[in-house]
Amino acid sequence: MAPYPWSRQRYWSESRLSQQHRLKPFPRHTLLGTLMDSSNHDICPTWRNVLRIDDVPWLRDHQMMGLTTFPLAGYVSMAVEAAAQRAKLRGVSAPERFMMRDVQAIRPLLLSDGSEYELMTSVAAYAEVSRVGKDLSHLVYGDRVCAMTKGAYSTFVRCAATSVARIPDSMAFEEAASVPVVYSTAYYGLIELAGLAAGGKVLIHAAAGGVGQAVIQLAKMVGAEVFATVGSPEKKTLIMERYGIPEDRIWSSRDISFGPDIHKATSSVGVDVVLNSLAGDYLRETWECIAPFGRFIEVDKRNITSNTRLEMAMFDRNVTFSSVDLTLVAAERPVTMARTLNAVMALVTARVLRPIGPITVFGLGEIEKAFRLLQSGKTMAPSRGGWWHMCGRIDGAVADLVNNLQRTAPKANITVKACDVADARSVAHLVAQCEEELPPIRGCIHAAMVLRDVLFEKMTHYDYSEVVRPKVSGEWNMHMALASAALDFFIVLSSVAGIIGNRGQAAYAAANTSLDVLARHRQRLGLPGTSLALTAVQDVGYLAEGGAGRQVAVMHNLGGGISFTRA
Length: 567
Prior knowledge:
Layout: H1 16-22, E1 63-64, E2 67-68, E3 75-80, E4 87-89, E5 117-119, E6 124-132, E7 144-148, E8 156-160, E9 164-166, H2 173-176, H3 179-193, E10 201-204, H4 210-222, E11 225-230, H5 233-243, E12 250-252, H6 258-265, E13 271-276, H7 281-287, E14 290-298, H8 302-305, E15 320-323, H9 326-332, H10 334-349, H11 367-376, E16 387-391, H12 396-408, H13 424-437, E17 441-446, H14 461-481, E18 489-495, H15 497-500, H16 506-524, E19 530-534, E20 536-537, H17 542-557, E21 564-565
Parallel strand pairs: 10-11, 10-13, 11-12, 13-14, 14-15, 16-17, 17-18, 18-19, 20-21
Antiparallel strand pairs: 1-2, 3-6, 3-8, 4-5, 6-7, 7-9
């Protein structure tokens, strides 16, 4: 990042209070002074604000959406969906010293210098562009992008435009997150460095991992023959079924027997390219598998940081040893990084490369669980099977949702239970019962509804309560009962009546406004929350059951015009 123009310092008008804050020893950045280490971190550090913008008035012109930024030509500011920051850990006892370079870290690594230890929680980001430098033309505000940048677990990230690529609208953010590191590492190592071509032979360690799957796809794209190792029978099945790798071309990475087998399979010639992520004796066995003029591509940092020795005699066969570290490429070779990222994105957009899988998405509250899983090396996460709660009548819109579920998930089991969702005890009992009988809950769809259309001046308290209770009390009871659940989604079916109002529907409008507010409240708590404000649904549910007469009445309440939504 370009340095801040300190010549502007003469324009600062600093208060005594802000000067006292700025000169305290704990702010990480003398100028920004907004972040402070927390002593109770486990895997990733936590932070808290120590300064307000009122305390540092000279930074006001660099503020964006309440956060201080320094937009410079060639840098992109992005709203990234994540929650932590890159930090340096100091004063850590020897057994706790470790470095995790990115989300592919297998286990803690010891640094060789024995002095400083860096935790880089992520280098890949997916985001929407919120600001661009003045000299940029290929990115605009609102573009959906992926990027290579340090400290990607942040609300806002600035990075060089050469490390950013626009993603197609059809690509989910979860899939886009694999492009900057996974696919770019594979492409840079296999195509840029190794120059793998048709007819070549490539050995891929950890073939079921993210980079491994990307390398398999690239190798098949150029017409190369794939040899692979995996860590478990499940991973072997995965690459056989997903990529059609023959069983006799897959070996276990848990012992060194793959070496003699590969020599036998290649008539003692060896492979042209190796993508290595193994260490120790496994590294040396792999080194013996390289063919004359072969290219050995190292993608794991353990061998480098531990200064592992290799037999030099192999170089007499004109072999090449290269390592891949995209963070260094992005910093020192930005043009190469841009070329690699754009080439990968073109292949992904053209569907030559498909998303790696299976992709497991962890909620914000499961950060520690996600990192523990990565640390264990069991990167094929366990199935997140579970149950979904759908609240509402068993006919109408809920029935249509259930039918869609049956079509998309034919093995799903559907259980119907009676419950007064407006009664907190009844909801708590239902959730407790389901937790004992069913897998963990993964989602909630709140579709409860009672309609009693009547002009406000004629509305009784009973009418009002009957309409409001299932939505307002019901949604809150579900929110409280599932407060500790690791949900993938929490969806409430609301109505535009809460926004524009309908004749005779004051209570209904109030109830739906409450749904919208709860969804926003959950988002602010870092929990999933979505409110769908639908117009009148024509072909299922309340209107469809009431026939033409009910539709005419609704049209009258709307003032003569109506917009129907199809289920």
